[in-house]
Write a structure and sequence with these properties.
It is a single chain. The protein is α/β, with parallel strands linked by helices. The protein is built from four helices and nine strands. Strand 2, helix 2 and strand 3 form a beta-alpha-beta unit.
Length: 180
């Protein structure tokens, strides 16, 4: 398949405003606490780097990362996720915030939540820039959501299509230009 970038779905300006807003809410919720912000590579890297800078000095933030991939082509329906890179640090008794780029079926986040809860964090919350609620399969609620979006494949601001277009500053839909 060949794809091209389509229309802007969420502009850079709207993303900047929303990240600031999420940072303010998270700063209030975790004021006076230590917070481990866990970014899920690679899609969440750009959102995470902006989000942590919008959390103010009331929160003692540390950063860690995980990289996961789904098994095989049926990933999104199987919900079986492989951890390619685990956390570097222990999260027992810590407040943890998982940061994702997008929640689609919710299977990745529900698996990660299960795995991290087994490590006895003090609390575990989920934050995703985008939420495609229509596609949800797993029963999972996301504590901090940037934007609800329709069932479209999107790229930009860290999100890719076969590793392309992560560098775009806005979020765009993707169009198919040919089947080969
Ligand atoms: P889930 O397990 O179905 O919720 O899938 C979540 C993951 O699928 C995200 O972290 C993305 O890597 C990927 N994904 C889902 N929808 C999109 C999209 O529209 N654009 C880019 N990646 C997507």
């Amino acid at each position: 398949m060949n794809y091209k970038v389509g229309d802007v779905l969420i502009s850079e300006e709207d993303i900047v405003g929303k990240v600031k807003e999420l940072g303010e809410i998270i700063s209030g919720d975790y004021a006076g606490e230590d917070l481990v912000v866990v970014g899920i590579l690679r899609g969440a890297a750009i959102f995470m780097s902006d989000l942590v800078r919008s959390i103010d000095e009331r929160v003692n933030v540390s950063m860690d990362f995980m990289s996961v991939s789904s098994y095989g082509a049926s990933t999104s329906s199987s919900g079986v996720v492989r951890i390619n890179k685990d956390l570097d640090n222990v999260i027992k008794d810590k407040h943890v915030l998982i940061v994702e780029d997008i929640v689609d079926t919710g299977l990745t986040l529900s698996y990660l939540k299960r795995v991290l809860l087994e490590r006895d964090p003090r609390s575990l919350a989920l934050c995703s820039l985008l939420d495609k609620k229509e596609r949800r399969v797993a029963d999972i609620s996301v504590d901090y959501v940037g934007f609800d979006i329709p069932d479209l494949f999107v790229v930009g601001y860290g999100l890719d299509c076969a590793e392309r277009w992560r560098n775009l500053r806005s979020i765009y839909s993707v169009e198919t230009i040919s089947q080969d």
